[in-house]
Structures are given as structure tokens and as C-alpha cells.
Amino acid sequence: MSHSFCCGPTRAAILAEAGEQSPEAELKCHALLGLVQACHSLQRALRREIAPNSLTESGFCILACLNQRELLPANSRALARELSLSPPVVVATLGRLEISGLVTRERSQKDHRVLALKITAAGRRALADTLSHYLKCITGVMSVLDPHDVATLDLACARLREASAHDPASAS
User: Fold this and answer.
1) Which value, to the nearest 10 degrees, does the dihedral of the CA atoms of residues 58, 59, 64, 68 take?
2) What share of the chain is helix, strand, coil (3-state, %, to 5)?
3) The pLDDT of residue 14
4) Mean pLDDT in each 10-residue stretch from start to end of the chain (172 residues)?
5) Which CATH number does 54-165 carry?
6) What pLDDT sits at residue 97?
7) pTM summary value
8) Is the dihedral of CA 84, 87, 88, 93 positive or negative?
9) What is the Cα–Cα distance from 129 to 92, expressed in whole angstroms?
10) Fewer CB near the terminus (10 Å): N or C of the chain?
11) How many helices (H) and strands (E) in the chain?
12) Cβ distance 134 to 55 under 8 Å?
């Protein structure tokens, strides 16, 4: 759902249409649009936590992926698929990460024709620092919810993900 559906005239039109259907439909629309708006707000806040390390969101994701593995084949298509990024974004991001000294490309020990990606010590430090800021942001934002609210939100999000994976019209 695009952020533009959550704000301004579009939001008002959706809520008005839902209100004509039923108070329950209006309440559900209001809650879902509010959740999407909150998610966009949180996403912006989390992106701000990446910026001090001169990382982009895609760079952060690539570093996290490389940190989980010793070496990763330098196959930008496979990495793009795994991280739900476009191959051109992965290629450009890897180039920036390499220039910044956060990632290196090395010859595979098994097959010297194959290049492999590896996170550097500087990349691990940047990732650890960013993860620390990320976690502080998440715990700070979530501190407004008590444990029951967190459990309810977690369950609601799981149900919404499941429902949206199917035909939205049949979810009602």
C-alpha cells in the first residue's frame, strides 16, 4: 500500500467510502491506514539511524547478509533476489560498499574463476554500530507499548500479513 493512500484527500475518500458501507468498515480502514502511516513513519526513523554510518538501506541489508556468511558468491542477481532488491541497485550498492572499504571481492578458494564477497572489519564495525542505533530506535519507539500491546500488535501483524498474501477480497 502506497504511503499516498494513508494521507490527505485519498485517506479521506477511502474513509468516507468505508463509512458509507458500515461503521465497522470505517473503523477497519482507519486502523489499517493508521498502521501503514505508522509503518512509514517508523521506516523513516530507522533510515535516519543508518545515515550516520553513510549507509543506505540496501547497503545495510547487504552488510547484514554478508555478516551472516563467511563468503558469498558475487552473484548480484541471487543477492538481489534474496534481499528483494533490484540487480542494478545491488551492483551499485556493492560498488559503493567496496569503495568505502566495507566489502571486498576475493577469489574463491575452490575456484579461482569465481569472485566472492566478504565483509571487512570496517564493514562489521559499521554494521554493529548501525544495529546498535537501530535497536535503540526500535526499543525507544516500542517503549510506549506495554507487553500486552506488543503481543497484540505482533499477532495482528501476523494475521494481516497472512490475509494480504491471499486475495484481499476473500479476507473479509
Assistant:
1) 110
2) 75, 5, 20
3) 92
4) 69 92 94 92 88 88 89 78 92 95 86 84 95 92 96 95 77 51
5) 1.10.10.10
6) 96
7) 0.75
8) positive
9) 23
10) C
11) 7, 3
12) no
Give domain limits for the chain: 1-52, 54-165
What are the cell numbers at 59?
547497503
Strand 72-73, strand 103-107: pairing: unpaired
DSSP structure string for 73-119: E--HHHHHHHHT--HHHHHHHHHHHHHTTSEEEEE-SS-TTSEEEEE
pLDDT of residue 106: 83
- Sorted by sequence, the CB contacts under 8 Å of residue 18 that are 6+ apart come out as 25, 26, 28, 29, 30
pLDDT at 171: 52
Please give the grid coordinates belonging to residue 86. 533490484
